[in-house]
Amino acid sequence: MFPALDNSAAFLETRDAMHAYARVLGDCLKARRGKRKHWWHASLRPSLNGLTTGVVRATTDFEIELDFRRASLHARASNDSGFDLALDGQAVSEITAAVSDFLLANSAGDAELSGTGNSPTAWPEFSHSHAESMGQVLRSVAAEMETFRAGIREETSPIQLWPHHFDLSMIWLPGEKIAGQDPNDEEYSDKQMNFGFAFGDDGIPEPYFYVTAYPTPDAMAAIRLPAGSEWRTDGFNGAVLTYRTLRDTSDASDYLQDFWSRLLTTGQPALHSTERADE
After folding, report:
1. Centroid of chain to Cα 20
2. pTM exceeds cut of 0.90
3. Cα angle 164-165-167, degrees, rounded to a multiple of 5
4. Would you call 105 helix, strand, or coil by DSSP?
5. What per-residue confidence (pLDDT) applies to 40?
6. 19, 40, 179, 263: which could form a disulfide with 211 (CB 3.0–4.6 Å)?
């Protein structure tokens, strides 16, 4: 259910390559979808084999999937055109070119993609087995998030992968605004809690789960967390559980659900009790 992830050079290069490829798809979505609150239009969605743009409306509708299980990129359009590109750590410029040509051929927008799309960097130690393991992790974490999300009555975001940071996330939104913030700017005015998973970054180099709240109630940092998890204040304020710790538990699913539930149970009344914008 939760396969092993190591810290080898092959894993890190595979992670960084898939991150860069995901960012190309994120750039594609930002340019071709109407804006939704909290930038939900620019995120990818979990699929059976990895990550997908979902169906994108254009002159010719299309979908692009980043397939972790087969280490490949699949593009399909409603006119039956498309391509399949094997991934082996090639430079992201090759991915950008393939996606741009596909979009242009299907009148789905111009061929320009921004971000890291023209980088010549390649990842020679890219590993198909590590890509497949990452896909299994994404699938398992997304399934756990669906289970957790089903018990929340208030609004929640889609379960989505943010291409920029390469983290899988689900946001709980209690529907209240923060006093003193522009209510039309949902990024800064919406109270929220974020339940996420990342494959590692500069702040925390190994794969980890995180929970943050905005604004952060004092009660959150004082909660008694499950053994092996901790409250972090370096870089961001939030609870952190390493993937390695989760795998060492006897029942990873129950442990993860308990980790999330404890924080949500504390965060719900704490965020509801903070000053409302209309008070």
Report:
1. 13
2. yes
3. 120
4. helix
5. 84
6. 263
- Is residue 44 within 8 A of residue 53, CB to CB? The reply is yes
Q: What is the pLDDT of residue 72?
A: 98
Q: What is residue 178's predicted lDDT score, i.e. its pLDDT?
A: 85
Give the per-residue pLDDT at 276: 40
Total residues found in the chain within this entry? 279
Amino acid at 92: V
Question: Please, are residues 92 and 120 in contact by the beta-carbon 8 Å criterion?
Answer: no
The tokens for 211 are 């929970």
Q: Which residue(s) pair with 85 in the sheet?
A: 73
* Helix, strand, coil percentages in the chain from 3-state DSSP, rounded to 5: 35, 25, 40
Q: Is the Cβ–Cβ distance between 239 and 210 less than 8 Å?
A: yes
Q: What is the distance, to the nearest Å, from the Cα of residue 97 to the centroid of all Cα atoms in its chain?
A: 24
Q: Count Cα neighbours of 108 within 13 Å in the Cβ-side half-sphere.
A: 30
**Distance separating the N- and C-terminal Cα atoms of the chain:** 47
pLDDT above 50 for 111: no
- Partners of residue 72 on adjacent β-strands: 67, 86
Distance CA 209, CA 185 (A): 27
Give me the mean pLDDT over the 52-56 stretch.
96
Tell me the Ramachandran region of residue 31: left when phi exceeds 0, alpha when psi lies from -120 to 50, beta otherwise: alpha
Measured distance CA(47)–CA(114) in Å, rounded: 24
Consecutive H or E run containing 74: strand 72-77
Q: 10 Å Cβ neighbour count for 45?
A: 14
CA angle (197 as vertex; 193, 202 as ends), nearest 5: 105
- The Cα-based distances of 219 to 117, 211, 234, 263 in angstroms read 43, 14, 18, 10
